[in-house]
Fold each of these.
Amino acid sequence: MTAETVPMAKEAPRPRKSSWKRTALIGLSRYGTIIGLLLMVLFFSANAPGVFLSRANFLNILSQASLTAIIASGLTYTLVVGEFDLSIGYVASFVGLIVTGLMAYEGFPIWLSIICALALGAGIGILNGLLVTKVRINAVISTLGIGTMLTGIGFTYSAFPIATGIPRAFTDISLGRIVFGLPNPVIIMVVVLLALWTVLNKTDIGQKMQAVGSNMEAARLSGIRVDRIKIFAFATAGFCAALTGTLLSSLLGSGTLAAADGYLLDAFAAVFLGSATLREGEFHITGTLVGVLILAVGFNGLSIFGAPTHFQPIFKGGILVLAVGMSALARRYAASA
Amino acid sequence: MSAPVSAAGAWMRIRGLTKSFAGELALDRADLDIERGRVHGLVGANGAGKSTLIRCLAGVTSPDQGSVTIAGNELQLGSPKASERAGLAFIHQELNLIPHFSALQNMLLGAPKVTRFGMIDWKRSGVAARAAAERVGIRFPLDTKVSELSVAQRWLVMIGKALTRDASMIAMDEPTASLSEPESEQLFAIIRDLAAQGVAILYVSHRLEEVLQLCDRITVLRDGRIVSQAERGALDKKGLVRAIIGHAVRTPDERDRLAADRSRQPIFSAHAIAWKQAVKDVSLHLYKGEVLALGGLVGAGRTEFAHLVAGLARPEVGHFELDGKRLTVANPSEAVEAGIALVPEERRSQGVMLQQSVAFNINISTLKLLRSVPGFPFLSDAKSRRQAESLVAHLGIKTPGVTARIAGLSGGNQQKALIARWLNAGTRLLILDEPSRGVDIGAREEIHDAIRALARSGVGILVISSDVEELTLLADRVLVMREGRITGELTGADITEASIIELSYHDAHDDQGEAA
């Protein structure tokens, strides 16, 4: 037996000698979605230079993306804390209906209607949060239940689209271009995303959200009030859904039942595409924005090439499975290489 | 199953087994012979290569080089199926049992099924399982759900599962980590029995006494290499420790125990605490400067008591005092605000946030101190980094940097990071539940030094440990609990493994909780 004294095994610092293959795979898993986005842009630019590659079309893509980006960023918060919100699409539809109703039927001024609408969205989010944390109903069930109820309540409120009695100034909100000639929804998106990014990455509450999402028990023992943090995340998701719903009504010039329901799937697709971007399987705002842009550029390209509308869901579902699958595969190879 | 212990040529021959991860050798040309009918101990610090070796045998990791032959046949490496077919069974610390299934269902899971018309014939499938259950001495009904079984009983189920498949070698990873003393003894008896029946046992443990007592042959790994192999009796504990870490550790009698000044006001007191059936009339005082430890068996109510102090549950009777003030905490976050912190027993599930960085894990409980401008919730990256770096240096946490993921650190360094979490948090009472579980012996010593230094600096320290040796090494005063009550108090030279064990089995009805 050996009795020589060798210093303790150095445990942690392991210099990683990585082969080019490994580096390439890690790169692919982190930047795969961004590379995909750039390839799409290049492809459309090369094949439809006049139509795709224009300032007008880019602004069009951005304003389409902005509503999805806002609602998807709110959803990102609930996923960061390890929960789920399936009600956001219904909340957006419901609030979009109510905000026009407040103006058309109740005669509220625009500013008050919008404040009420956003507060309503945040309130529904808080209700979701309370159901999940205090009553301890699974988030999938409680948010789906609340969302479904909202559809019915919306129908009770107004079975028909509210199109008359909406002030022009309200529709101008989403059609106007106040700053740098950019559509207002784009500016609103930038402000909302910057705020959400800052809160998530640079503040107490953002760190606590990440802690709750990483390990709830550990977060609790670290003195974090887990329930409050989760309720905050749900409230943010509700608020963002309400904002998207309001902007959609402004864009359409009417409040219509179920108008924003489709945003649920778009938002989920974007957030999960985003979770495979730059980081490995974590939800974050930057990633979500990349995910939204992939969807928007893709839709735009499809319509430019005259693809029938039913190609959109095929594209949406396909790209989600493809992108997430590819990054998962690349990660596994990178880990074993 | 009565394979004779072969005299010539080992049953399993491992030759030149080598595996590297990312250019680092985890296992370096390991040669090892394993005989049926013997208990083989495998020891080494964390990262020494024990788990890599086991994973190679299990077929979950493909070695870069080397071969394994079993009874003359070459084992196809890198295939879990081939390993299973060769009769190798592996029981990991996190027992892979399905809680909602019965013991029988679990034992038959994945085993070749006896079917009738495509449906599982439970009666006939059960025959092999029942025979196996008999061999390991399972006394509870096999249709009991696993969720209703104790950890010790679950181990029996896992062993039974291995025997159901006719395993000729069973590898066990830290089987006694969550077992009480009598349960461990029971397990050892079963292990010896299995060996006598011709099963080869590969026994991995950090508990050296146990290994010395149980194993016929001990193999020591260090830095991926086999540095020592010894037959029973050829190595004593000191020699074993030296082989594992390369230098000797202090023995308990070389260290001084602090006798706290009991005339002063205690930092923390518990007054007649009771909760459910787990904690009964527990009173204690914790004085400045001392390391107070709660000893006893698993299930004696110590962890439950810690949870009551940390606000995870509220005592039904009694109250706590911190610095002479009565304490009312309804949840962990109020406890933390009051200055009470818990470093929990389950490091991975309750302690570290694995996907986050070392700095994140350290800073999470002191975010208020890290704001750029007090009163505004924005955090300063520079302050966060500085705090994390100074604590990493202070506790000697081995990490490539504070931004590295904590998941890449060894168990001991993760544990140090969890202690670091509370150093700047204004903590008055730090409770450490099993502070060195699953931590290698070198890191354990460093953790002990850190805990003692904290106590001397005036923080109240309450340690819970089922590792009797750890209590003798670390504690200035030991309160032993049994069945929810404090059954005795040990100070100074009275703190010995024998006295702690004696009190752990002491009949609580003779004198009830007079201590402290």
Note: Residues 20-47 of chain A form the longest helix (28 residues).
Amino acid sequence: MVEGAELVPMLGMGIAAVMARRGADMTHLAALLGISAMPVARALKAGSGEIIIGTGPEMWLVISPDAAPDWGESLAERLAGVASVSDQSGGYALYSLRGAKARQLLQKGAFIDLHPDAFGRGSAATTVIAHAGVILWQTEEEAPAFELALFRSFQASLEHWFTVALAAMAAAD
Amino acid sequence: MSRLSQGGLIDRSSPLSFSFDGKTYSGYAGDTLASALLANGVKLVGRSFKYHRPRGILTAGSEEPSALVTLRTGARAEPNIRATTTELYDGLSAISQNRWPSLSFDLMSINQLAAPLLAAGFYYKTFMWPAKLWEKLYEPVIRRAAGLGALSMQPDPDSYDQNHAFCDLLVIGAGPAGLAAALTAARSGIRVILAEEDRLVGGRLMSGTQTINGERAGEWTARIFAELRDMPNVKMLARTSIFGAYDGHIYGAIERVADHLPEPAPGQPRQCLWKIAARRALLATGAIERPLTFGSNDRPGVMMAGAVSTYLHRYAVAPGTHALVYTASDSGWETAAHLLSAGVDLAAVVDTRDTLPAASAALARAGVEILANARVLDAKGKALRRVVVRNAQGRTRTFDADLLAMSGGWSPAIGLGSNLGARPVWSEEIQAFVPGKMPPGMIAIGAAAGRFSLREALEDGVKSVDSITDELGVGGRASETFIADEEDVAATPLWAPSEGKTKAFVDFQHDVTDRDVALAAREGFVSVEHMKRYTTLGMATDQGKLGQLTANALLAQATDRAIPNVGTILSRPPYVPVAIGAFAGHHRGDHFRPERHTASHQWAIGQGATFADAGLWKRAQWFSRPGERDWLETVTREVKATRSGVGICDVSTLGKIDVHGPDAAKLLDRLYVNMFSTLPVGKARYGLMLREDGFVFDDGTTTRFAEDYFFMTTTTANAARVMQHIDYARQVLWPDLDVQATSVTEQWATYAVAGPQSRAVLQKMLPDIDLSNEAFPYMAACKFTWRGLPARLYRLSFSGELAYEVSVPAHQGEALLRELFAAGGEFDITPYGTEALGVMRIEKGHPAGNELSGQTTAFDLGMGRLLSRKKDFIGRVMANREALLDPARPQLVGIRPVDIGQRIGAGAHLINAGAAPVAANDQGNVSSVAYSPSEASWIGLALLRNGPERHGERLFAYDPVRGRNTEVQVCNPVFVDPEGVRVRG
């Protein structure tokens, strides 16, 4: 594990915003996504490798590793009649934030409680870092590893914040 | 030198060199600038705000009103820094303020001679007339004469960090109460943050000789500090002031990360602004000693008694050689004992009270002269030399003294406790205001709660945590009790004006005297808030921490009321001054706010684009080419190239919203004035939205891609607002509709390809799609696949030319753009920016931001016919209000100058020929203006009364801002291709 923290862009992933149709059967929706129940403020990994992140009431972000270009359309077909799907594969930039100080650095940016008791493995939240909205979740892996999604136009600003916040944290040690 | 030979929490093995007003001195690590100056016998450190009176060091803490200096030099110079909280470092450089030419000889001190003119409110009375001189003459002169330090006017070279923290319990202050509370809480297992403004914990324990559970206070403090420091559930923030309590149990804190260093280490922030969310907070901020009111109580050498004890014990400095103690409280006697044991010659202890505390006996035995029921009348000397005292018998005595330690009693430091409108209440017992109803989640303990003895402070620390853990249902109960000796803490404040001959100050930093308070009362400013504003008492950077209660009491006396009936002020953040840079943090300069970049931002930079801000977006405004004289030449070229050949413009910033669901069409019918349920799949339609009040909200095109899926676009400026509007409609107005909406603004990079050659370019690039007018007519739309990716093509036009918009997922936007340019190379395809886009829309009479101003209706914009009569929609009822249908309302027209070479400016007002250019004759205003290459003239869009009926009429565009009055002719707002032949070509 890196000593401080590093922010690594995750490329080539399929991303889609999913909203349940009115009165949709949540169990059915979960089954279509290969999970037991739809997550609320949690990030769940399905057997397929797809990650389903609860982002709001009956709203989710679904992320697929190594997605084909038409993954968004195929997901829409898979969930047809149960949920509405908007392909966001180009809309969000995804980052992985890892390292011994990842949590400490994220806490400088996000005003949500990231203590392991409050935001443990699989926790997810929508929040703001450096004046930009982000969807933040902790993976279910062993080491504390965070991932976040933000609208792609904010990438340069977020990366700038990361650089200066990391430098300030390093100088404080 | 007045450094004691032993003692103090200073490191005598680390001598430090520093300078004050250019003269070099030495001190030790552990000193403050104030203690080091006192150790060097420097008493005069500044001149006062208004009267330029000599001032010294009054306190030993952050409440200091007098010892304010400019610290550091060059760009790092910072004015009004309290010497009492400035940690000494090697090479420290400070200069005194508010004096000219020198500190000891200040010409402005003649203000004292003019003192009768400078009483409270003088500037309201003296500089009233002529009023026009106020801004230009009086105010600058007064400000220069009365200002404290000056800013460097250079950019701040330091950086500021920001951080967040969460805890069950925030303990504000690490004195005995705070330490006892933090330890109890920490041992119970809850999450604790202990914030202390000082570099050391211990608070008052550093200024005395107390014992706790039989252990010396210093050792007790060190033991508890060590235990807390090693506990994983405790965060210790030293050099950190909590400066405000905010809604939602949130506290603001400023951590002085590097202020104790000559300059921050590379990359190290100077300060860090914390936002702390705490379920509960303990206000353990202690108490602040009150000055006594007597003549020249501001002389250097007059000091708070508690501060004298601090300098003796913590810094091993005797602030004088011949001392006199003047007290209304038992704690003053404690200082007298401290002075005596430090070997300072004690001339007398003067107590305002009849009954003296038990501690007086020991002093009497030591041969100290004691005067009960006596008053100090005046202090004498530029720095204190003599003290004039009236004894109980009414006789006047004069004592030689270079140090006067005064104690008027203690006021709980409840500034934070009266944030959020929490009003303090009067305690008859301690004769001070104590916290009443506090900010939610906050509890005061120890001296901050008016419980002044060490025993009470420790008891509060433990008990308060027990009740908090019970209430929150977290953690275990305390196991330890802390016992201290009993001590005398009585005080009988002397709420009376000075009986001396010279000025007696209540607010030292703002030079407000007891007589100013009386004057305020005479002039009718009898509310404590009015008195505050009239006299400016409590409005300096120290926020009246020392003088407020005395002033309230004097006001009560002058108006024959009891103090609780006068009341006191509330406080609001910040409790201590906070550098504005800390609030900005890393968001400064170009990074003040985030920037949004479109997919082809880097490409545009490579093309020499000049960018314009559109909200947070950076949009290419134009693409200059070598040899072009100015932007107008560039924009004119871009328009001509597009209208005669083909141009390409990044329109990705337009808001884009997916509207899904079986009821999507129904929702759109209600959002837009015109019908969308009739729109066939594969077609786009222009839509206009109103606000509920009937005025135009936004417009854009919406495309139907499936029975249950529409793709909406909005203006760039309103993208977020329209999304909110839709969510409101879905969630609040019509939760019964089965419709879902998602912002996909960021998903699609979209490029407008416009001009007579646009079809040729796209057909070359997309040979598999039939782009003929028959197969893909105006307002057609389709999905297609580009390099395996989902892509979309629309036949839309904002320019009025044959035009298309092409979209691909944004991460491939630049690749698409490059391919479009490759395909368009043989057609001399030209990139154009938002300025050319604007010119072409004005030439076509399309309303945009300037016309969608929130004050225009659909009728005003010539779109009244769009309002469907077959359905209901948001804004329908209010849009039909009589006044909004008045044909005399300003409505959209075009204008052009009668003399073709003349310019017109947006914002100009339209006036009838021959009418005076006054508001009563206003006929409307010019909303948008452009130089039209197609018309070879400046043209404009305007909102004109009865506009549509006045085509051909001549008016004047009166533009006082630019000094123009141009004769214009009213015309059709559509200047280019009014029949719309080209878009359908």
Note: The CA atoms of residues 3 and 100 of chain A lie 5 Å apart.
